[in-house]
Amino acid sequence: MNYVIDQGWAFYWGTSMWTAAQISEACEIADRLGLVRPIVEQPIYSVLDRNKVEFEYVDLYKKYKLGLTTWSPLAYGALTGKYSGGTPEGSRMENPMYKAISPEFAARVEKADKLKPVAQKLGISLAELALAWCVSNENVSTVMIGAKTPAQLEQNLKALEAVEKITPEVKAEIDALIPFVPEPPKPDALTLLRSQHL
User: Fold this and answer.
1) Which string of b and e fits 4-38 if b means at least 16 CB within 10 Å?
2) What is residue 184's predicted lDDT score, i.e. its pLDDT?
């Protein structure tokens, strides 16, 4: 990566869906060899996907000043509210590929629906609540969003106005409805593939 940085093709580099151990190893090797260490990790993060950000990476934020560019804050759409009544026509979950990567999607929608009263009480949509909740985490540098329509983009950006509503009390209410139970890291297919080639 230093070659790419030295050529001016990039200013910094980061990782995506690496384990905490892999990030630590990369930082230690970079420090030992006088190279630029990764400054950002790109993990999945939402109210329904919290383990990496809130458990696995906790020691990395201060030790390496690691930033986060998180993705899927709406949990593949489960946190939008549009799947509450089933799968809408033309939605991504009609696509067999998405069904394969999220087989427990219906259960995730059921969990997400528990948050609707919280969103209503705050006067925002479920999607705005989910996005604002992600942005409110002090360790999150950036929340990547995706939108198929200008209206979706506008709604996603509107969540920035709701961040101040995500108080410690609101977070506690969310935690009571969807408890976070830390789990030891599980290697996924990409982690296993990387470990064979690095």
Assistant:
1) eeeeeeeeebbbeebbbebbbebbeebeeeeeebb
2) 87
- CATH 3.20.20.100 assigned to domain 2-179? The reply is yes
Query: From CA 187, how far away is CA 190, in angstroms rounded?
Result: 8
Give the model's pLDDT for residue 94. Answer: 66
- Starting at the edge strand that comes first in sequence, how are the strands of the sheet with 14-16 ordered? 14-16, 40-42, 67-70, 142-143
Helices (H), 9-159: 20-33, 51, 58-63, 96-101, 105-113, 116-122, 126-135, 150-158
Q: CA–CA separation, 196 vs 105, rounded Å? A: 30
User: Residue 40: is its pLDDT beyond 80?
Assistant: yes
Q: Which residue has the tokens 């939402």?
A: 46
Longest CA–CA span in the chain (Å) reads 55
Contact 75, 101 (CB under 8 A): no
Domain segments of the chain as ranges: 2-179
Residue 30 corresponds to which tokens in the numbers above? 């970079």
What's the CA gap between 69 and 62, in Å, rounded?
16
The answer to whether residues 20 and 43 touch, using CB atoms and an 8 Å cutoff, is: no
Distance CA 68, CA 144 (A): 10
